[in-house]
Specification:
By secondary structure, the protein is an alpha/beta fold. Among the domains are: about 35 residues, no CATH class; about 290 residues, TIM Barrel, CATH 3.20.20.60; about 45 residues, no CATH class. The protein has 19 helices and 14 strands. The strands form three sheets. It has an eight-stranded parallel beta sheet with strand order 12-6-4-3-2-1-14-13. A three-stranded mixed beta sheet has the order 5-7-11, with no helix packed on it. Helix 8 links the parallel strand 3 and strand 4. Helix 4 crosses helix 6, helix 6 packs antiparallel against helix 7 and helix 12 runs parallel beside helix 15. The longest helix has about 35 residues. The protein is globular. The model has no long low-confidence stretch (mean pLDDT about 90). This is Isocitrate lyase.
Amino acid sequence: MNTYTNEIKNINRTLEQQGASWSAINAESVARMRLQNRFATGLDIARYTAKIMREDMAAYDRDPANYTQSLGCWHGFVGQQKMISIKKHFGETKGRYLYLSGWMVAAMRSEFGPLPDQSMHEKTAVPDLIAELYTFLKQADARELHHLFKELDKARAGRDHVRERYVQKAVDGFQTHVVPIIADIDAGFGNEEATYLLAKKMIEAGACCIQIENQVSDAKQCGHQDGKVTVPHEDFLAKIHAVRYAFMELGVEDGVIVARTDSLGAGLTQKIPVSTSAGDLAQQYNAYIDGEAISDLREIAPGDLVLAQGDGCIKVKRLANGLVKFKPNTGEDRVVLDCITSLQHGADLLWIETEKPHIGQIAGMVNRIRAQVPNAKLVYNNSPSFNWTLNFRQQVFDAWQQEGRDLTEYHRENLMSVEYDTTPLAQEADERIRTFQRDAAQQAGIFHHLITLPTYHTAALSTDNLAKSYFGDQGMLAYVETVQRQEIRQSLACVKHQDMSGSNIGDDHKEYFSGGQALKAAGEANTMNQFS
């Protein structure tokens, strides 16, 4: 017996037990409403999506070709349209997630207005956006199933039993738009208790995966800004533990933690941890502290900080604000230690924030980590902060230079110029960009590729293009030619915006509740019918 029919039978039994007072309730209508809302709570979503993500991680371990992807979304509608598009073009959502970017929450969702990515926005905006994204994804389910139910009714009315069975099979095999969200908790918005409390809110909203970084919470910077300050391992591990406790308390045992290290670009630490035994984490961390070797107490001035390091002592180098400097050129070593330590203390995935998209650089660090933790794998930021065109053209230039090829027609510092767009070097660079995710998954241990804030840029670009033409001499043609005509020809469901916003679902409900007295919006006078 199929799912749809079983659901109707079970509901009918319940209605029969209630007697005549519930006789106006139609079992099939209830079944449709239930199927259109398969997740009663955010915790149901978190448990469902955590299982998906764990299965995807295991599939990647078997074969790196099974890497996953996501795009950052700053509004529920954006996330919804992304997943509708994926289902339309690829038939399924497997391996495609959503990313919730702290950068975009700060820039787009704060009541203070646009803010930099420095943890100044309201932390409640993060779980609020998670809940909003899943509300829109669930509405996408409801809308698609609504159309299937209408097809089912039409097949029954026409006594087309073959079509009826086909549609009912589609209902039973329906794939939800609800997918995992990797959610950015920044540096935890406070101490470990604050991190735990916020993590709970995020999980209750539906997050199965939380990404946390090892910067100082009250001095947090965007990963692509200067002035980053990291915390000792003990502080960061306490926050990883806090997130795990939140997952466990709420019954999401498969919850995923992404430990992000900003050490590659961070030259400062806020404090020097206390070592209690030789070779412990504190001592390993302190080995990277920069300072001037001293051999005489008379070299110490008031306010100086002295640290035993190796077989001697150093006078620690500090900024005027008291922040402590790391030794130059120790970033990669600190990254490797950060990552190994995080995985050995409860993290599931790693995030290494880099200054450029270079597979060799990433692989070099990952191979060192895998020497200690063989199944280590990354979530990697394919960041819009990188100049991808220039970076890859320069990578090709450098590779060709090593091969001894003639590069006299190219100027390395000017490779962004349009004059190079049709050259063999530019074409090779574009091909490397095209295959970057596949190649990095294979060679550098990247399980998940994401772009943090792509829809921030697409919104700006599309708005600029429309405004330029609409307020210029193109007028209404600018909208018709570049937006509506393309929506129609590319079969974007959103061209029927009334349907997308839930108008037809509302009509169904009115009919369930009021029967023939229902005042519905989808009649002949609805101009949406022009897009049939």
